[in-house]
Design goal:
Length: 293
């Protein structure tokens, strides 16, 4: 069984502002660990809803590891951030106003991770797993490590499910491209059947002034050439955390040697433009010592 811990930048279990610093709640402590897994939820989640989604994923991961006669990488930390309002109806319409809390939460998380140390002061290896706007939290967190000549953490892998991140920002060297390239291994689980990303996300991004109804990374897995693209055709936005198939993809990135069965309804990803050559990040931490959405 994996050790489970909880980290939070919430002030209240529903709604509220971003706390001044990350709090370690009950469960495991991240200090002194050789490696850890960090789960990050999306927007329109109360703390209780996010906790339930995380646990469904953890249960599937543990079952997957058991079937493979393997051990699940541990400890696993649930990270809570205030990407919701207290009124569910408003929460579904408030996406443009949740981008600020996502950035602020990322800043607090980056500061917290910079204070970690592994056994004997060695770097801590971190695996990032996110959903929806949690993908934006991940990339904004990584942005704080861009250009580090030394860092206390090594980002081993990044798995983004249904990422609510504009494609044009993920591929822009002046925005989120270099942060996205920091993790050693990267994958995106996507679905063109996700109406939340296909419609609500685009409208929300336009309202937030981040593009003209831009495409989400979690719709077709773009930009090409940046990460492994896993097509979960037919999946709606809320189906990733409890999915056994998604857990199999995540398990591989968490060093559990399992074979991932193809989806019965899987189809080839929509052909995109020819993959372009992307610049490498100038410095990498590797070389250094209600319905929840």
């Amino acid at each position: 069984m994996a050790e489970i811990g909880q980290l939070s930048v919430r002030v209240e279990p529903e709604g509220g502002k971003v706390a001044d610093q990350v709090k370690v709640l009950d469960g495991a402590s991240p200090q002194g660990r050789r490696s850890l897994v960090l789960l990050i939820h999306g927007y329109a989640n109360s703390q209780d809803a996010a906790c339930g989604s995380f646990q469904a994923c953890i249960n599937n991961l543990e079952q997957t590891a058991s079937q493979a006669s393997s051990q699940l990488l541990s400890p696993i930390f649930k990270f809570y951030w205030p990407g919701d309002t207290k009124l569910p109806v408003i929460s579904q319409l408030s996406y443009p106003w949740e981008i600020g809390p996502a950035r602020d939460s990322a800043a607090r998380l980056a500061e917290f991770l910079q204070g970690l140390a592994g056994p004997g002061g060695t770097p801590v290896e971190i695996h990032l797993v996110s959903h929806s706007l949690g993908g934006r939290v991940v990339l904004e967190t990584l942005k704080h490590f861009q250009g580090f000549s030394s860092a206390p953490v090594i980002f081993k892998s990044m798995s983004m499910m249904a990422a609510a991140v504009p494609v044009h920002m993920a591929g822009n060297s002046n925005q989120l491209l270099y942060p996205a390239l920091i993790p050693e291994r990267r994958q995106v689980l996507f679905s063109s059947s996700d109406l939340v990303l296909m419609i609500a996300f685009r409208a929300g991004e336009f309202a937030a002034g981040e593009g003209f109804f831009p495409e989400a990374v979690g719709t077709y897995g773009h930009p090409n050439g940046m990460w492994q693209q896993k097509n979960l055709q037919g999946y709606e936005h809320w189906e990733y955390w409890p999915s056994a198939v998604a857990a199999s993809y995540l398990a591989n990135f968490l060093q559990v040697p399992v074979a991932v069965p193809p989806l019965q309804n899987a189809i080839a990803a929509r052909p995109g433009p020819e993959a372009r050559s992307l610049p490498s990040a100038p410095l990498s931490t590797r070389s250094t010592p209600d319905r929840p959405l």
